[in-house]
Amino acid sequence: MKSRLLASVALSVAVMLGATGCSMLSPQGTEVQYAPSDGVSIPDSAGAPLQLRNVFIVANKDGSAGNLIAAVVNSTKTPHTLNIQVGIGSTSIDKTLRVPANSVVSLGTADHVPLLLNGINTMPGATLPVYFQSGDAQGVTSDVPVLDGTLPYYAEFVPAAAPQG
């Protein structure tokens, strides 16, 4: 009688471990970090005072120009400058953005217009490598998605085509 009881307890324990053991081996979906929007979050480089969230570019149909949209977070007690470089060498586009202390600058809102990038030569649907640097940190290059104005909430950010000549 005792052996039957022990066997049934052992079988019950084995079934419970078998049924719940799958979660021990597979990663939890809630632990995976991702960008919950169309843009990308730029990984924090060591010592960088500014963090970038939901970064993307809305380009015109021919890909000649785009507006950089992002949220730039400064959680320090001093203002900092974000240096942005698109492209390399003589064809690069250099922009800077001053971010006040303890603030968030949201490019593409009523308070802060997006940064116009003329001459990106990147069609919507592609990604564009963009270099971001702030403070004493080395900086980081990230592939930023280039979108178009198909979605109604991005239509207002499509820049006019760059003038010819």
Q: Using the alpha-carbon principal axes, give the shape.
A: elongated
Round the Cα radius of gyration to an integer and report it. 24 Å
Sheet-strand content, in percent, reads 35-45%
Structural class given helices, strands, pairing? alpha+beta
Number of DSSP E strands: 9
What is the N-to-C order of secondary-structure elements (H for helix, E for strand)?
Answer: HHEEEEEEEEEH
**Percent helix:** 10-25%
The low-confidence runs, each spanning 5 or more residues with pLDDT under 50, are none
Biggest beta sheet attributes: 9 strands, mixed
- The overall pLDDT, averaged over residues, is 86
Termini Cα gap: 96 Å
What are the main properties of this structure?
16% helix, elongated, 165 residues, Immunoglobulin-like, alpha+beta, nine-stranded mixed sheet, 3 helices, 9 strands
3D architecture notes:
The chain has three helices and nine strands, in the order H-H-E-E-E-E-E-E-E-E-E-H. Strands 1, 2, 3, 4, 5, 6, 7, 8 and 9 form a nine-stranded mixed beta sheet that branches. The protein is α+β, with helices and mostly antiparallel strands and 165 residues long. It has one domain (35-155): PCu(A)C copper chaperone (Immunoglobulin-like, Sandwich), CATH 2.60.40.1890.
Question: How is the secondary structure organized here?
Answer:
Elements: H1 2-20, H2 22-25, E1 40-42, E2 50-59, E3 65-74, E4 80-86, E5 93-99, E6 103-107, E7 115-118, E8 127-134, E9 140-147, H3 152-155
Parallel strand pairs: 2-9
Antiparallel strand pairs: 1-2, 2-3, 3-6, 3-7, 4-5, 4-8, 8-9
